[in-house]
Design a protein that fits this description.
By secondary structure, the chain is an alpha+beta fold. It has 6 helices and 7 strands; from the N terminus they run H-H-E-H-H-E-E-H-E-E-E-H-E.
Length: 152
Amino acid sequence: MRNTLACLGLLLAAPVLCPPSPLQAQNKDPYFIRHDEIAQHPDLKNAYDLILRIRPRFFRGTRASAGGAGASSTIPSTTTPDEQTRSDIKSEGILVVVNGSRRGNIFELRQIDTGTVESIRYIKGPDAMAVYGYEQAGVIEIVLTMGRPGPS
């Protein structure tokens, strides 16, 4: 009985004794990609490929209506995870903004070298519509590192 109570006490104290590392705590935001996370993928040379690999949900925009409600698409249950990722890419209505400048749709991301990216943030439909205008399914905001050239 004492051993059971001791084990139970250790299990309850484990989260306090072993808190998550700062890196683990910071990577919990599914709508933000930090520079150190980008650096973990040197094989991915452009922002499009990076997002497709580590945050494919950025490409699954939710179309915002004038009333502010969004409706997301559904994925058929017969598709594999890879097919789901590829088949659910929505370029229409997703705006790419680089250092505050509107660039176009998601295919502009192929022109952005990941070595120049400081961070990437996804803004969902209703919030994107409020900030960037009517009928935005989402916005991908990219901040380039200072002192490095960005796309022209």
